[in-house]
């Protein structure tokens, strides 16, 4: 349970941020939630405030999650929490996206709405009750001072306590950002009038989830510099199509069909906040790892013994440190054309495992991995990502270090300006 000091710090943080930005009126604002990385689990934890009285709750971000679920029994107790009927439209929406089997036959309208909540870390599912409550948000806009606002009728699932297994310590559930009618971005789009888009900016410390326009928080210079590629949604997960991969400018000898998947259910490249490092299907990883080791050798990097779970590890001795992290082979993910590429450099490719050793943060995902590639948390950090679900486009910045900033710096600068 959060201490009184931490509760005061949280609400002081929201208050400071709220005094930063003018707003147009609630129906055209952006709203955001602070995020931190849990050092023990490498999960990204968002803080929301909900209920009556309003209280903070930590939730692990699940980029592909269909809705928000939390343990309502051991967490914050709210007097405004209301159960949803099994025959309501909202219940039908939730059941359309849950991970359980659909019940046959009609429903009994005097019963509560039960939905399956899913823990993406452990793969466990459990039956929970669909409820609605008040959620407090910090608004950002352009013409009046930002304020903490409340949104009523926010829908989520109350799941059993055992479903918290595997989540970061202190977390009470997961925050679903997937393409589903009850995900957090979708609910804000329909209830507040936001565009069908959200921004994600993760780091090794402070980050943010933001719905609506990104200009007030990230600035027009950064948001207008984003490169866009088609965003593909399958069920409620987000995918991009990688046409080819280059290491230090040399294209890998990987058939495009291996990267894009096929019509038999094999999927292309998935974006995930659940896995800490990018995983690559074995058939592709064998080619990728061989090419990377060759490129590292050409740069006079010394390979050392593997450190689990990593396969490719190198001595840090003699490797130059730059603004983009250690100077190591560059990885380019080529999207719809050679002009559209997601470049991954040292900060987003290497993991420091000791003062002498660093390892490549790309893992062998095995032969049975359904997606060709799953881009994980390390590779997403300090990249501003715009998920424009309405237009089916993904905007990405590549490393913000190139713009001499980070996701954490943006958040810390905002707090410092307001709390001097």
UniProtKB/TrEMBL annotation:
<dbReference type="InterPro" id="IPR032799">
    <property type="entry name" value="TAXi_C"/>
</dbReference>
<feature type="signal peptide">
    <location>
        <begin position="1"/>
        <end position="20"/>
    </location>
</feature>
<comment type="similarity">
    <text>Belongs to the peptidase A1 family.</text>
</comment>
<dbReference type="InterPro" id="IPR001461">
    <property type="entry name" value="Aspartic_peptidase_A1"/>
</dbReference>
<dbReference type="InterPro" id="IPR021109">
    <property type="entry name" value="Peptidase_aspartic_dom_sf"/>
</dbReference>
<feature type="domain" description="Peptidase A1">
    <location>
        <begin position="44"/>
        <end position="397"/>
    </location>
</feature>
<dbReference type="GO" id="GO:0004190">
    <property type="term" value="F:aspartic-type endopeptidase activity"/>
</dbReference>
<dbReference type="Pfam" id="PF14543">
    <property type="entry name" value="TAXi_N"/>
</dbReference>
<protein>
    <submittedName>
        <fullName>Basic 7S globulin 2</fullName>
    </submittedName>
</protein>
<dbReference type="Pfam" id="PF14541">
    <property type="entry name" value="TAXi_C"/>
</dbReference>
<dbReference type="InterPro" id="IPR032861">
    <property type="entry name" value="TAXi_N"/>
</dbReference>
<keyword id="KW-0964">Secreted</keyword>
<keyword id="KW-0732">Signal</keyword>
<dbReference type="GO" id="GO:0006508">
    <property type="term" value="P:proteolysis"/>
</dbReference>
<dbReference type="InterPro" id="IPR033121">
    <property type="entry name" value="PEPTIDASE_A1"/>
</dbReference>
<dbReference type="GO" id="GO:0005576">
    <property type="term" value="C:extracellular region"/>
</dbReference>
């Amino acid at each position: 349970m959060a201490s009184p000091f931490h509760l005061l710090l949280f609400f002081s943080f929201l208050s400071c941020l709220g005094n930063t930005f003018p707003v147009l009126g609630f129906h055209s604002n952006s709203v955001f939630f602070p995020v931190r990385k849990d050092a023990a689990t490498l999960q990204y934890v968002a803080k929301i405030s909900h209920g009556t009285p309003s209280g903070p709750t930590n939730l692990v971000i699940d980029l592909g999650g269909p809705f928000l679920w939390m343990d309502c029994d051991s967490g914050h107790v709210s007097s405004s929490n209301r159960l949803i009927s099994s025959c309501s439209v909202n219940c039908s929406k939730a059941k359309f996206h849950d991970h359980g089997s659909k019940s046959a036959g009609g429903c009994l309208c005097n019963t509560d709405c039960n939905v399956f909540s899913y823990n993406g870390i452990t793969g466990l599912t459990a039956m929970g009750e669909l409820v609605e409550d008040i959620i407090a948000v910090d608004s950002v806009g352009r013409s009046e001072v930002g304020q903490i606002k409340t949104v009523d009728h926010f829908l989520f699932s109350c799941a059993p306590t055992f479903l918290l297994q595997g989540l970061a310590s202190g977390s009470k559930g997961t925050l679903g950002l997937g393409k589903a009618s009850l995900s957090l971005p979708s609910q804000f789009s329909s209830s507040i009038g936001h565009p069908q888009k959200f921004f994600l900016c993760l780091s090794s410390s402070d980050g943010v989830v933001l719905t609506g326009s990104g200009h007030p928080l990230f600035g027009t210079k950064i948001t207008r510099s984003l490169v866009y590629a088609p965003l593909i949604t399958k069920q409620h997960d987000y995918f991009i199509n990688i046409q080819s991969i280059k290491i230090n400018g040399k294209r890998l000898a990987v058939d495009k069909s291996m990267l894009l998947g096929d019509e038999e259910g094999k999927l292309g490249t998935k974006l995930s906040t659940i896995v800490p490092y990018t995983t690559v299907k074995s058939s592709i990883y064998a080619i990728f790892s061989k090419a990377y080791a060759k490129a590292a050798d050409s740069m006079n990097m010394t390979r050392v013994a593997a450190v689990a779970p990593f396969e490719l590890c190198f001595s840090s001795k003699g490797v130059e440190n730059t603004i983009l992290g250690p100077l190591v082979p560059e990885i380019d993910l080529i999207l719809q054309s050679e002009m559209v590429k997601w470049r991954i450099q040292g900060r987003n490719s290497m993991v420091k495992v000791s003062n002498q050793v660093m390892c490549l943060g790309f893992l062998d995902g095995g032969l049975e991995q359904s997606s060709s590639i799953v881009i994980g948390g390390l590779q997403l950090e300090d990249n501003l990502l715009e998920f424009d679900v309405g237009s089916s486009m993904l905007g990405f910045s590549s490393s913000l270090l190139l713009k001499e900033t980070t996701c954490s710096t943006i958040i810390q600068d905002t707090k410092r300006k307001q709390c001097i």
